[in-house]
Design a protein that fits this description.
Layout lengths: L15 E5 L4 H12 L3 E6 L2 H11 L2 E6 L5 H9 L6 E4 L17 H22 L5 E5 L23 H22 L4 E5 L8 H9 L2 H13 L3 H4 L1 H8 L8 E6 L4 E6 L9 H15 L7
Parallel strand pairs: 1-2, 1-4, 2-3, 4-5, 5-6, 6-7
Antiparallel strand pairs: 7-8
Helix pairs in contact: 3-4, 4-5, 5-10, 6-7
Length: 296
């Protein structure tokens, strides 16, 4: 896959794609590229207004679907509106925000980045399983490397909250979920990907959330060393479209320890490769969301 680019994406005519967080950053770029390749793109966005503004930048065949991953009732409502689906890209996320809870009482990062996406994926499995070659791509992060799943306290109710630790936990959960989905649902190819260090709105949003000048300056410095959104979107586009992308694998940039570059197989920590942890997380997610995936 040496120097794989957007030009290598096969024709997507006839495919329907749902991208979460498609109104900005990696999600918007992913929607633009797939629409240009002929796919019909469902842009799942928390703000319908921002989604409609972004849709005008996508062109091609695209529609907006209101979806708040921090609200399981919104996830259910959105899933009920989706008919045919060939590809789900779990791209949206929040990063290193202060402690808070979702509508359903989950810690915000774990609830949004993992539980919301897991619920959406499970509710859309019946649609995906009807389509030959269907895929689910779940976007993780280099931050999974410092993540740890606390199965006794995933929502940080009985321990001191760490916004960094919580984000790492949620991104580790993304990989574990993607791998377990691949094992349990062979009709659908499940792959994880990460964008390396990419210049998106996440860092600025994190600084604003903490009202931190230090984080704001740090974000500006990191942008000097980050790659473009166009490059950062390549790993998830590779996972979504390449005939060579393998289920259960994890893809990211190939240079500078995964910070920059073209798509390649990425390094997972030992905990991310732990099948027992993946199974345990799957069962915990069922318990927390109240959703049981429709699988044999």
């Amino acid at each position: 896959m040496s120097h794989w680019t957007e030009a290598d994406i096969p024709d997507q005519t006839g495919r329907t794609v749902l991208v979460t967080g498609a109104n900005s950053g990696l999600g918007l770029r992913t929607a633009q590229v797939l629409a240009a390749k002929g796919a019909h793109v469902i842009m799942a966005c928390r703000s319908a207004e921002r989604g409609e503004a972004a849709r005008l930048k996508v062109g091609g065949s695209a529609e907006v679907l209101q979806l708040d991953l921090a609200d399981l009732s919104s996830v259910r409502t959105a899933a009920e509106k989706v008919g045919t689906l060939d590809l789900l890209i779990n791209n949206a996320g929040i990063m290193a925000v202060p402690y808070g809870k979702t509508v359903d009482g989950f810690e915000r990062q774990f609830g949004t980045n993992h539980l919301g996406h897991a619920a959406l994926t499970w509710l859309l499995l019946p649609a995906l399983r009807q389509r030959p070659g269907a895929r689910v791509v779940t976007v993780s992060s280099l931050a999974h490397q410092y993540g740890h799943i606390d199965f006794d306290d995933p929502n940080w109710e009985h321990r001191s909250y760490s916004y960094r630790g919580s984000y790492g936990q949620s991104k580790l959960a993304n990989i574990l979920f993607a791998r377990e989905l691949e094992r349990r649902c062979p009709e659908v190819t499940s792959i994880a990907a990460h964008p390396g260090v990419t210049a998106t709105e996440l860092t600025n949003n994190m600084a604003d959330a903490h009202n931190s000048l230090f984080l704001r300056i740090g974000g500006r410095i990191s942008h000097l060393f980050s790659q473009s959104v166009e490059m950062g979107a390549l790993p998830q586009l590779y996972a979504a479209t390449s005939p060579d992308a393998r289920g259960g694998q994890y893809y990211g940039p190939d240079r500078f320890n995964g910070y920059r570059g073209h798509p390649a197989e990425a390094r997972m920590t030992s905990e991310a490769r732990d099948d027992l942890a993946a199974n345990r997380l799957w069962e915990l997610t069922i318990k927390l969301t109240g959703i049981t995936p429709d699988l044999p």
